[in-house]
Automatic annotation (TrEMBL):
Stretches assigned to the CsbD-like domain: 6-57
Pfam families: CsbD
Comp. bias intervals (Basic and acidic residues): 32-43, 51-63
Protein name per UniProt: CsbD-like domain-containing protein
Domain of life the protein comes from: Bacteria
Chain intervals with Low complexity compositional bias: 15-29
Native source organism of the sequence: Pararhizobium polonicum
Length: 63
């Protein structure tokens, strides 16, 4: 994946994860809440990966 697609996927996963957590909390579904937290964390990692790729590309472009 490119840096942009990593960042977009990351944001999408964070939003979906937060929605799952809210739905799990509202319904008392601990499993759904946990899945949402996992998806949110995955999204944060994807976003960070995209930002890191941008940083590396910036350094390489300067060389």
């Amino acid at each position: 994946m490119g840096s942009t697609s990593d960042k977009i996927s990351g944001v999408a996963n964070q939003v979906a994860g937060k929605a799952k957590q809210a739905a799990g909390k509202a319904t008392g579904n601990d499993k759904l809440q946990a899945e949402g937290k996992g998806q949110e964390v995955k999204g944060k990692v994807q976003s960070a990966t995209g930002k890191a790729k941008d940083a590396v590309k910036g350094v390489v472009d300067r060389i």
